From TrEMBL:
This is LLM class flavin-dependent oxidoreductase. To bacterial alkanal monooxygenase alpha and beta chains. Residues 17-303 form the Luciferase-like domain. It holds the Pfam family Bac_luciferase. Signal peptide: none annotated.
Amino acid sequence: MAESILKNIPYSVLDLATVLDGYTASDTFKASLKIAQQSDALGYTRYWFAEHHNMAGVASSAPPVLIGYIAGATKTIRVGSGGIMLPNHAPLIVAEQFGTLASLYPNRIDLGLGRAPGTDQVTAMAIRGENFNAVHNFPRDIDRLQQLFSADNHTSNVRAIPGEGLEIPIWILGSSTDSARLAAEKGLPYAFASHFAPAYFEQAILIYRNNFKPSRFLSEPYVMACVNVVAADTDEQAEILASSVKKMFLGVITGRREKLKPPVENINAHWNQMEQEAVAQMLYYSFIGSAETIKTNLADFVSKYGVNEVMSTSHIYDQTAKLYSNRLFAEIFK
């Protein structure tokens, strides 16, 4: 039963370029390349980077640079952003950057867009300056991007060269119901951040589907759900490996953000009950265990919510274990 449910579901990767304790961003990028090349060979559909700033443990502050790095060393996997935080950038600059990428790697570049700053408010102010309220322009800026990518824009005074005429696929990313309404209104595919914001997932995808307006880009709703994945030979081994991501989210809720820590045998020694419950809530859509356990639970998830694609993100300290987890996850769909 699980096999039939998952058989035709595309599976993808979200890479936050997590920096490991004791290592550097340079080490992170080399590790990302290995995962991306393995994912390419294993039939993953996409490999996306998410824009973050001012975080010691996250090195994905420049997704277009990383996208080029990965696309240039892989063969068929689509590479893109999950996402570019559009209010941080002028639409023209984004169009030129992704137009350049799409010219270098035709039919392999995705542009996922979010409206959040991808950082704290102080850093957001440093990024946006006088454009701090640019978040309110998010729908209009998406329209502007689509115009810049259109071949019809060739008569405009402002053109994206390269970019014009390339019709790069645009996705709306979200962690709330607002993004769902916007994706539905514009008739664009919708990627939900259920890996850290599970509370609104069910409501958001329902709103998206019920309000979807077909467009020239998409005829019917398309939902991609991002989830946390830690796979190992046994459930017990996976739970130990998952202590790293649990400690990472503990840092998020306590304000002590650090590089990704090695796993621990007893995670309960590192938090109180309230912290444990808060982390469990944030990691609600996590698939941790053996391949068989994950297959069963993921099939239930896909069946219940009718998602069209699953994107995994895996915060695993040991890189050999991370590569193995990535392989086990791919095998679930075959």
